Structure formats: C-alpha cells, structure tokens
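User: Reviewer 2 asked us to show a designed sequence for the structure in our supplementary figure. I'm pasting the structure tokens here. Could you produce the per-position amino acids so we can include them in the response letter?
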C-alpha cells in the first residue's frame, strides 16, 4: 500500500487519479476568459457569479474562449479538458468537445506568454500563433 501511495504522489500511477484532476494540474495559467483581436471584453463577456459567460445573444464568430476548472467553452462548443501535456515550449490540451451538431476529440496547442497573455497555435509548424488577452472579471 505504501508503494501505491508513493507512485500516486509522484504522478506515476495515473490510473488511480481521475483524469479531470490530471488535466487541472496543468491548467492554472489558462483559467479565465480570453479574447483575441480588437474587440472589447465587455462586448463579448458578462460577469456571471463564478466567472465570465458569453453575452446573449452569443456572437458565434467572436475569437474567444473561457476556461473554468477542466471546462473550456467557446461561443459554439463546450469541451471537457481530458489532459494537458508538454509539447516543447507549448502545452497540448486534449479536449472532448460537443456542439449542437456533433462531438469530437480536439487537440489544441497553447503557450502562456511572459506578459500574461496566451498564444494559441494551429499546429506544431505554426510559429506565429494567435495572441489572446485575459479579460478581467
């Protein structure tokens, strides 16, 4: 029993740790509402109790997403973050997403920036990324 405790503490026994807990460990820098481009946060988000939510009617084209716990929401989809793993200087988030039409597994590459912003990359070859700013709540 002592060995199982040591392995779990070292993160080596992931089968005994819920996947939500594994995902949340690497998500602290990603928590909050994020917006890209010249739109103002107040145009896209409204404060709602524990955090930001998309204003009604939702602008489905807004370059925005919000992460709360192990949930990532966009204007069109809701995702559960299944895992977070390093991919060089970036983090690979594996998401289980659903929208009004379908559900699918999605992989996203992101990297926190020194100024507190976040870059999202389309794939491993993308060297520019898209810059997102955190909206204050």
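Assistant: Here is a per-position design you can include in the supplement:
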């Amino acid at each position: 029993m002592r060995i199982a405790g040591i392995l779990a503490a070292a993160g080596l026994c992931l089968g005994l740790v819920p996947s939500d807990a594994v995902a949340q460990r690497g998500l602290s820098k990603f928590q909050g509402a994020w917006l890209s481009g010249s739109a103002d946060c107040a145009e896209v988000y409204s404060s709602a109790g524990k955090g930001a939510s998309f204003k009604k009617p939702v602008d489905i084209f807004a370059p925005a997403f919000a992460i709360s716990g192990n949930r990532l929401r966009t204007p069109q989809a809701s995702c559960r973050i299944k895992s977070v793993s390093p991919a060089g200087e970036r983090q690979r988030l594996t998401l289980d997403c659903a929208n009004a039409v379908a559900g699918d597994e999605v992989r996203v590459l992101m990297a926190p920036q020194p100024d507190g912003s976040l870059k999202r990359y389309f794939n491993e070859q993308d060297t520019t990324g898209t810059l997102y700013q955190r909206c204050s709540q």
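For the response letter, you might also mention the following. Residues 18-135 form one domain. The beta strands are 32-35, 45-48, 51-54, 64-68, 71-73, 78-87, 90-98, 103-112, 118-121, 130-135.
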